[in-house]
Amino acid sequence: MLERILFKLWYSLHRLPLTWLHALGRMLGRLYTLIPNRELRITEINLGLCYPGMDEVERHQLRNQTMQQIGCTLMEMSAIWFRPLDDVLAMINTIHGEEHLIRDEGQGLIILAPHIGCWEIVGVELQRRGRLTNLYRPPRKESFGDLVKQARERGGAELVPTDNRGVKRILQVLKTGGMTGILPDQQPKSERGAAFAPFFGHPALTMLLTNKLARKTGAKVILACAERLSGGRGYDIHYLPAPEGIADADPLRAARALNQSVETLINMFPTQYQWSYKRFAKQPDGIPSPYKIQP
């Protein structure tokens, strides 16, 4: 019952101006820095791993800013999912690197969009450019999963399951000049079809799906993120070229190139990255997870 009430309250927020939503998000983030919680703990561990040379005071500030940005992500999601598409597109201020979307006739396009800023609005922007087919893993709560799926498909995108059937559909789409978006900073469920590669200098289980799709279809690979502008001014979308190594025949070199490209984007907007994700949970044999609480 409480969960349903909270959801209805969150849904009703989508009518508020973006300035208000982000202000509420920053307030929520500040609250999260005052009480012990999972997101705060994981963020602190990840920042310590990825920026070991950073001054402690500076890293503390980065942690606090990150928590505020996480709050903004939560609040703005109601607007991105439930406002009319034209209103959502109007939130986009400037699109940088649009030329990187250009490819040969009939060539597919793979867009790597890490969890930076408002990644949901990248999908909305891409849907107006052509056929977009994405892999989709439903949340644990089925009713909420239906809502997310409807929100992401309302602009014409196609969501397919994260299984062999879904990958086959993605291959078909890319071979016929369509697009697919991939979240490259997610840890694969198993080591099959993945490789350990450095991410900010630490082993991270890294997907090889992008490499396989690019090699089998000849699709072009680019990077994308939506920078959240201050003062509720909306978002700037950035499209960047991906390093050639992503399509390399050597899977380890491809995984290294993918992680390096994600690092590049994160370093552009470090406060807007989702540092609360357990990116290093799975480690090579003999190396413990950094998230396990030591006795």
TrEMBL record:
- Cite the InterPro entries for this sequence: LipA_acyltrans
| Annotated GO CC locations | plasma membrane
Q: Tell me, what is one Gene Ontology molecular-function annotation carried by this entry?
A: acyltransferase activity
Recorded hits in Pfam families, A to Z, give: Lip_A_acyltrans
State the compartments where it is located.
Cell inner membrane
| Record keywords | Acyltransferase, Cell inner membrane, Cell membrane, Membrane, Transferase
Single biological process term from Gene Ontology: glycolipid biosynthetic process
Q: Which domain of life is it from?
A: Bacteria
Could you tell me what this protein is called? Lipid A biosynthesis acyltransferase
